[in-house]
Input
Amino acid sequence: MNNEEYLEFIKVRNKNRTVTDSELQDAISKAKLIFEANHKPTVHFERSIFINWTCAIADCKYCYLSTKPKHKAGTQSTALRSHESILAEALICKLMGWKIGYITGGLRVESVDQIIELLKKLNQVNQKKNLMNFGPYAHSEIKKLKPFTGGMGSAIESFDEELHDFICPSKPLVTLRKFLTHLQTEEMHKLITIILGLGENRDDINLVSENITKYDINTVQLCFLKPQADTVFETVPAPDMNYMAYWVAQLRIKHPKLKIKVALVKERMDDLHLLLEAGANGFSRFLCFKEFAQEQACTLEIECEKANRQLVGNFTSLPNFDIEAEVAKLPFDAELKAKILPKAEQYYLKLKKLAKKASS
Ligand code: SF4
Output
């Protein structure tokens, strides 16, 4: 399939992915009962912490990093983030009551030893083992990482092999399946990200569900196509909210205990309550250092309330923290703390400015 044929294929598929209001309401009413019987009526923000902005694969057709130069393994890169910046962000998230969903970024940029070094420090900030969303890794690498991570995952994109391998030619589904099998052998927490809008159809819910069972997946993150400039998807319309909520509801019905996360879609914040009513446990992609206390944060609170969910963490009011004292409490040497402090102060200042803007 070339790009033109593929775009035609998507257009046909997209026509078949309509979900009517009554179909959605029917699915939500079942999903809601299952959610209530199995989960707390809360909702969490899970921040994805990026540790780099480059990728050694760099050819997945939907991804922003596919429009950037490919990272060459072993070279120094300015697209690597400093540990002090990552740790400062993690500290501010903790203070604000925001969870760390996982560390992530482009693939094959840091060595396993470098990631272990980072995880050791991050785990001390969070006082728990953090997840990583970077797969696939070889079994030997997973064993090495296992003592330091709370679980591992990868963007799977789609379990439709032909579709997947067209979209991600250098990250074939077979290697991702092997990765999930190794995680299963190691009895680790498994996270997958499915991206809707890449050409799947409604029936693919069954395919995803079979694989959740097959690999004993603990967390599914549903992301929705965000068409990127200079990619084949540039002109492909993103899925609508009914379709997104239908996926959440069907996964909730089929997997009562599964943790379901959704990536927020800024343009569709007014319908977030549908995703929550359909059984999502949490959300990612809230731009906390841009949107804190702004219109989107207010909508977030309203939508959670509409869905009868208690939103955990601060989104519109800023607690008063002594950042210097908080950094001083971290279990690191004086040199590292001295590097973390100005970064943490910068993050906190950003939140202060947004809070001030909101009150003026
Ligand atoms: S491997 Fe991940 S980061 Fe790299 S191009 Fe593909 S989707 Fe983007």
Remarks:
- The beta strands are 42-50, 99-104, 131-133, 151-157, 190-196, 219-224, 259-263, 282-284, 310-311.
- The chain is about 45% helix and 15% strand.
- The radius of gyration is 20 Å.
